[in-house]
Design a protein that fits this description.
By secondary structure, the chain is of the alpha/beta class. It has twelve helices and 17 strands. Strand 13, helix 8 and strand 14 form a beta-alpha-beta unit. It is globular.
């Protein structure tokens, strides 16, 4: 019998992405086959395609996807063919000490859909049923593909031990930054301000969320923070940009005893003077990181909250968060957009049409 095939965007080498025939993934016990409808290009996908960050070749990337249940393994309950779903991409071992504590994002023996095994830049993907989350038909497949970055923002809120009532600074007005700001407002922030270096991103953030922003190339971050908070600084700071300079901005805008959480990962080396780093001591800052979005019960409340709050309309997934939509067959053209720094202002989505 000949092998069943589908179409996929297959990465064969750096900057060698081809839309071509690819083996259909086989069903496995405890799994669900998903017909991919939309898949976002994450910042982590860009160096894998255009650089040398892919784990191996050939590989089908893509981990921010939505679609429909196409097939269900025997014994899997709670789903039916046609359900609209998203997928949590981490597959933890469920056995190591971190997993035993419910810290699935920190699992040392994980695999990952879309970087270590076949992902969502394809017609179909087969994933464990425990990773699958249903979503409402009140929003589109394109909107649902943003649940993954929304969950990353929610996890950052949790890691920063966020409490309502304080002033919040979001350093980086990209997709995850937009969701971080919304979650902060939902949970009771007294003030939310964006800090970025791009006027277009700040204008879009204002249009979508209603929150003002500061361009730190035009006004010193520390000065702006004092003016905006009656001299106190921000109580909670979320570093969402990967730009090395943004890490200093995070410390500069803090109040005494502030909480600082770094959600974004640096795109280059980050250096501080002694005086800059000393802000952690002098202001008695609480500094933490945030990695992915998976907690107990797996995949975690960040995922269920995103699905619920998008359905209710409390969390906005604005179409303006999407820079452009390409057909899956146009995958190379989509990634070519990232060759021009500053061109892409939001998520790019790859979609499969009927």
């Amino acid at each position: 019998m000949s092998e069943k095939m589908m179409k996929a965007a297959v990465l064969h080498a750096s900057n060698d992405l081809r839309y071509e025939d690819y083996p259909m993934p086989e069903m496995k016990p405890g799994c669900i086959k998903i017909r991919i409808r939309a898949c976002g290009i994450c910042g982590s996908d860009i160096p894998r395609v255009l650089g040398n960050a892919a784990h191996f070749f050939p590989i089908v990337l893509g981990h921010e996807f939505s679609g429909e249940v196409a097939e269900i393994a025997e014994g899997v309950e709670g789903f039916k063919v046609g359900d609209r779903v998203v997928c949590a991409s981490l597959i933890p071992c469920f056995k190591c000490p971190d997993c035993a504590r419910g810290h699935f994002s920190l699992c040392k023996h994980y695999t990952f859909i879309g970087s270590r095994i076949q992902g969502g830049f394809a017609d179909y993907v087969v994933v464990p049923a425990v990773n699958v989350v249903k979503f409402s038909d009140k929003y589109s497949f394109e909107e649902a593909a943003l649940i993954e970055p929304a969950s990353v923002a929610m996890h950052g809120i949790e890691c920063n031990d966020y409490k309502g009532g304080g002033a919040v600074a979001v350093v980086g007005a990209g997709t995850i930054g937009l969701f971080t700001a919304q979650w902060a407002e939902i949970m009771g922030a007294s003030k939310v301000i964006f800090f970025d270096v791009d006027d277009d991103r700040l204008a879009l953030a204002k249009a979508i969320t209603g929150f003002d922003g500061v361009n730190t190339l035009k006004k010193p971050a520390a000065e702006a923070a004092k003016e905006l908070t009656d001299g106190f600084g921000f109580d909670y700071v979320f570093g969402v940009s990967g730009a090395p300079a943004s890490y200093l901005t995070c410390f500069e805008v803090t109040a005494n005893k502030a909480h600082v959480c770094f959600i974004g990962t640096p795109t280059g080396s980050v250096t501080f003077t002694a005086a800059q780093w000393e802000l952690i001591n002098r202001r008695e800052l609480r500094v933490t990181g945030s990695w992915m979005s998976y907690t107990s019960p797996f995949p975690g409340k960040a995922w269920t909250m995103c699905a619920e709050y998008l359905s209710s309309g409390k969390l906005k997934c604005d179409s303006r968060m999407v820079h452009k939509v390409f057909n899956m067959s146009e995958c190379k053209e989509a990634f070519d957009c990232y060759k021009n720094p500053g061109e892409v202002k939001g998520r790019i989505l790859l979609v499969n049409k009927d």
